[in-house]
Amino acid sequence: ASPGPHPPPAIRVRPLTCTETRRGDRRVVHSLGDGTVHVSAARHDATFGFSAVFDAGASQEAVFEGSGMRQLVELAIDGFSSTVFAFGQTGSGKTYTLMGPLAQSKAQPAAPALLGLMQRSFACLLERSRSCGSELALSASYLEIYNEQVRDLLSPGPPCALPLRWSKTCGFYVENALSVDFESLEAIADLLLQALRPPHCPPAGSQRRRTSAHALNKHSSRSHALLTIHVRSRAHELLVPVRAPLHPLSPAGHCISLLAKARGKRMHIPYRDSKLTRLLARSLGGSGVTLMVACISPSSRCLSETLSTLHYASRARRVTTRP
């Protein structure tokens, strides 16, 4: 079966923060409403074209429907390996886009309208799973890559490094990674909400991740997280990973640049340069369907990083995979 057109890179422009407004930052990024982003500042005047651009007023639902995320979930159920990742500088809105507000917990969940791409994808998967009766089984694994070490964020006990292996059937995979079955939105959402527990709670899930303060984010992650949802057919033992890396994937930038230049030519792509790119090799330029959500700040103080993200997303548009 043909997967149809690939979801294009989606651009999301967050609002100016209260801090940026108080200190007088200028808004230098504007969505023109026709799939274009205009950057206007001293010595910089550039327009970038994309198929999907969401400005500061776009709702979470609009991003889910307009980015191609629902299509990605449907393709995963049809048997295609599907990946979504967010890219952008710290404080550009990646976590909000993927997970919703930071201030949420099991006791105080986020309002339904504010839920991010991941929770909406889970709901879509579970809805389709129930419509299929007992044919589909869903499970999740959650890994962190930090300083070229892979850790399992779901396993109990002290975190330890896990080996990365290769097989002809699976490609690169993490040996002994724990996979947890789930049958409800609450169960899978809890894996993500563990990241938002207050510091006095026992470490689990994303709260075990490496973080440090940053000028734009007091709790900036210093690692990459890879949440994988496995969609398995009980009848055929089909395994389809729906991967959702949670934070910027700068090590993948070099691979994407070379893939964009290749344009059908035989060219060496250095997937083996990092464990992150090894695990994402099929997603970046192989047999998967991949959606990139590039998040940018409209602030004049973030101009350099914003331009870098837009150029990166423009290169990613030229990369094609063969699902």
TrEMBL record:
Q: Which InterPro entries match?
A: Kinesin-like_fam, Kinesin_motor_dom, Kinesin_motor_dom_sf, P-loop_NTPase
Q: Where in the cell is it found?
A: Cytoplasm, Cytoskeleton
* Pfam families (UniProt xref): Kinesin
Alphabetically ordered keywords of this record: ATP-binding, Cytoplasm, Cytoskeleton, Motor protein, Nucleotide-binding
- Entry's Gene Ontology molecular function annotations: ATP binding; microtubule binding; microtubule motor activity
Locate the residues binding ATP. Answer: G88, Q89, T90, G91, S92, G93, K94, T95
Q: What is its main location?
A: cytoplasm
Q: Name one GO biological process term.
A: mitotic spindle organization
One GO CC annotation, please? microtubule associated complex
Query: Which residues are in the Kinesin motor domain?
Result: 6-319
Does the UniProt entry include the keyword Cytoplasm? Answer: yes
Q: Which domain of life is it from?
A: Eukaryota
Say which family it is in. Answer: Belongs to the TRAFAC class myosin-kinesin ATPase superfamily. Kinesin family.
Q: What is this protein called?
A: KIF12 protein
